[in-house]
């Protein structure tokens, strides 16, 4: 397994929507350390990377749980030619 680069960590943090402070809190670190890691000013220790990746994994599991709660099956759809009344009738069940 290849260790993520500082840029990889920053990209993933932004994809999840964490601020530096959010990630620091969730990883049990301080915000300046996260900033130094992302800028490449400090050498990463495996222990620190593990804490950061664990924080990312936990956040992504929460997001997936929320997404599963929002998804509805089967997907109900209408065509542009259908009337609003037909759409309303499909939504009320």
Compact overview of the structure:
By secondary structure, this protein is mainly alpha-helical. Helix content is 66%, strand content 0%. It contains five helices and no strands.
Write the layout of secondary structure elements.
Blueprint: H1 6-16, H2 20-27, H3 31-39, H4 46-70, H5 84-91
How would a textbook summarize the main sheet?
none
CATH class category label of the domain at 6-65: Mainly Alpha
For the termini, the CA-CA separation is 50 Å
- Classified in CATH, the superfamily of the domain at 6-65 is lambda repressor-like DNA-binding domains
Mean pLDDT: 87
Give the strand tally. 0
How much strand content do the residues show? under 5%
Shape: elongated
CATH topology of the domain at 6-65: 434 Repressor (Amino-terminal Domain)
Low-confidence stretches: none
- Radius of gyration in whole Å, from Cα? 21 Å
Structural class: mainly alpha
Count of separate DSSP helical elements: 5
What sequence of helices (H) and strands (E) makes up the elements? HHHHH
Helicity level: 55-70%
CATH architecture level-2 label of the domain at 6-65: Orthogonal Bundle
Report what the structure shows.
By secondary structure, this protein is mainly alpha-helical. It has a domain at 6-65: 434 Repressor (Amino-terminal Domain) (Orthogonal Bundle). It has 5 helices and no strands. The radius of gyration is 21 Å and the shape is elongated. The mean pLDDT is 87.
């Amino acid at each position: 397994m290849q260790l993520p680069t500082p840029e990889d960590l920053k990209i993933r943090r932004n994809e999840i929507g964490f601020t530096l402070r959010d990630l620091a809190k969730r990883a049990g670190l301080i915000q300046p350390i996260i900033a130094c890691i992302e800028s490449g000013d400090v050498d990463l220790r495996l222990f620190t990377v593990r804490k950061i990746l664990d924080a990312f994994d936990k956040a992504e599991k929460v997001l997936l749980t929320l997404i599963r709660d929002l998804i509805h099956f089967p997907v109900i759809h209408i065509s542009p030619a259908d009337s609003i009344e037909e759409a309303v009738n499909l939504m009320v069940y």
